[in-house]
Amino acid sequence: MKKLFSGGVLLNRVKLYIYSKRKGYGEKLSRFLSSQPNRELDVELLTEIQDGTEWEKDAYMVTDDEDICRKVKCKIIRLVKMPEEAGKQSIFMYQSGRKIYEQLLEMMGTGNANGKMQSGLAVPKVVCIFDPCGGEENAMYALRTAGDRAERGKTLYINLCAFPVIFREEGGISMGWGREGVSELMLCTDSVVFEESLEKLAFAAGNIFVLAPAGHFRDLLDFTEEDAHRFMTYLAHQTLFDFVVVETGQLWEWTFSLLSGADVVFVPEGPGVFTEARRELLQEYCTRDGQEKLWEQFQFVPVPACAPDTWRESKLILFDGEGAG
Known about the structure:
alpha/beta, seven-stranded mixed β-sheet, 12 helices
């Protein structure tokens, strides 16, 4: 069982292996589970299993391969093809990723002290995904977080990165440059006008709503701490959307002010030897800036070392509402 450091607290983490005879299914399920904001799970996709492999005592294996069930020496959760076959330690595999996720949490007992599942807790209205290092995997995490919220209510996704995600025609969604969006709303100083403008400017992209990113990266340089604070305050009080997911990356002058206005801040972390060093440096930046309370808000979450290769695959993951199948 591994340890995860978050906001000065060490947490136990459960190792969860994914192995499926259907490679595509296993990859999709692994990506979905890795993208969930649950700090207790350490998800790893296996493409082959060798005899003699040593397994962690408390690890779980999720698989649809009966031969593998007899080989591995860890806790088994079976994936079954028919709903009536599901039981105490088996899950119907052709259902939404959200339902699979919730059932896995229940079977592994990764709930809070009161016995409630983490997935059943109140979902924060305004979430920031802060990705200081960038990367396709982290962008996918932010978008999948928005997609997950969309299963619960009307969700708005906002990108405040210098290189924002752009939905192109081949992805089935068009979003061109020059469209009004973030730049206009960030500078809006009236809450009523803000909400009216938000209703006009937000557009549907699959099952989420999106604001066009800043028209030019220089707009991001011109925003102030006051602008960011007001922007987040208006987002928290608007009534058009149940949830708002804001993705930002680089450290701008206004970044900490923006993050402080969120209900929770997720910091995706990919694999690599520099992860711990970057986290320590981020803590140092917070300390120097007098942002110790903000540091306590950060929740560090692992992301898989893989991203979709095609627009079609991205669209399936983000907008179909299914984690696998």
